[in-house]
Structure to design on (132 residues):
C-alpha cells in the first residue's frame, strides 16, 4: 500500500529575473522575455536543455496569499464562478504555477525564455522539456 507523506517541502532550483515587478493577468506576459537564473549546484542538471524548443517551468506564486475555493476566471466578474482548481488562478492551495515557455537561449545557468507569467524574484521549483 502506497501512502503519501502528510507534508513535504520543495526547495527552489533558481529564480526568475524579469523587468516585471508586480503581478498581472497571464495575457500580459505573452511575447515578453525574461531570464531564469538556475542556482550553480543545478547547472549540470541543465545539460541538453538547450536542444529543447519549449520547456515547462514550475514556480511558486510567492506573492499570493490565501485562496478561495471558487474564483471568477482571470478575475473577470462577467464570467461565472469556477472551482479554483479548474482555473489558472495564482491563489491556489499550494501556490504552484506552471507555464509552457519558449526557450530562447541557454548561457550557463541562465535560461532566456519567452511567455513566462511570473514576476521578478519568483522561485523556480522545476523545469521539464515540453514536446508538442
Amino acid at each position: 500500500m502506497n501512502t503519501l507523506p502528510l507534508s513535504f517541502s520543495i526547495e527552489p532550483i533558481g529564480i526568475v529575473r524579469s523587468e516585471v515587478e508586480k503581478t498581472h493577468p497571464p495575457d500580459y506576459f505573452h511575447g515578453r522575455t525574461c531570464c531564469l537564473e538556475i542556482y550553480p549546484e543545478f547547472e549540470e542538471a541543465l545539460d541538453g536543455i538547450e536542444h529543447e524548443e519549449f520547456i515547462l517551468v514550475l514556480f511558486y506564486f510567492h506573492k499570493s496569499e490565501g485562496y478561495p475555493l471558487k474564483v471568477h476566471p482571470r478575475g473577470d466578474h462577467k464570467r461565472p464562478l469556477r472551482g479554483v482548481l479548474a482555473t489558472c488562478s495564482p491563489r491556489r492551495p499550494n501556490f504552484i504555477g506552471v507555464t509552457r515557455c519558449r526557450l530562447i537561449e541557454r548561457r550557463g545557468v541562465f535560461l532566456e525564455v519567452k511567455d513566462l507569467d511570473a514576476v521578478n524574484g519568483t522561485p523556480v521549483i522545476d523545469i521539464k522539456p515540453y514536446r508538442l
